[in-house]
Write a structure and sequence with these properties.
alpha+beta; two-stranded antiparallel ribbon; 8 strands; 20% helix; globular
Length: 149
């Protein structure tokens, strides 16, 4: 199952965030990924990390959080959120950008069957979701998202 993690860059404390109907999340101040593919990047920055997960993991402490039930599994290798999840993730990302002193977040996925590790560069939030809608997001990618766009 894939992990999906968001980092609010240079954010010093976890902002107040709503509970979402379509997924669970847990926030931590120690930037440690649950699978480790991008840990070298996480080690080079500061901020808070949110691990996204299937809704049934909400309220459970410890262990690894997986997000296989918040994505669509099309026949392609594209990372595609379920429609109801996409709206909530957009809202969460906007909130995390606002909480970052740099107005920047990092979005990463780690999936054992997802292909090679890729750092993909900087996009706005609008550009990120445009890539999503065009099926151009893949597993095992890391994106820097710089503004609400």
């Amino acid at each position: 199952m894939p992990t999906i993690e968001l980092i609010s860059v240079d954010c010093v404390c976890v902002p107040e965030l709503p509970t979402y109907e379509s997924f669970a999340h847990i926030a931590e101040t120690e930037l440690i990924g649950h699978r480790g593919l991008f840990q070298s990047v996480f080690d080079s920055i500061t901020g808070i990390i949110l691990h996204l997960a299937n809704k049934d993991l909400e309220g459970k402490d410890g262990g690894y959080w997986f997000a296989g039930q918040i994505v669509d599994w099309p026949d392609s290798d594209a990372l595609k959120f379920l429609p109801e999840t996409s709206r909530d993730i957009f809202d969460l990302m906007k909130r995390l950008i606002a909480a970052s002193p740099k107005q920047q977040i990092i979005f990463s996925t780690d999936y054992q069957f997802g292909g090679d590790r890729q750092e993909c560069g900087h996009v706005t939030l609008g550009e990120f979701f445009k890539l999503h809608d065009q099926d151009k997001l893949q597993y095992n990618q890391l994106w820097y998202i710089d503004e609400a766009g």
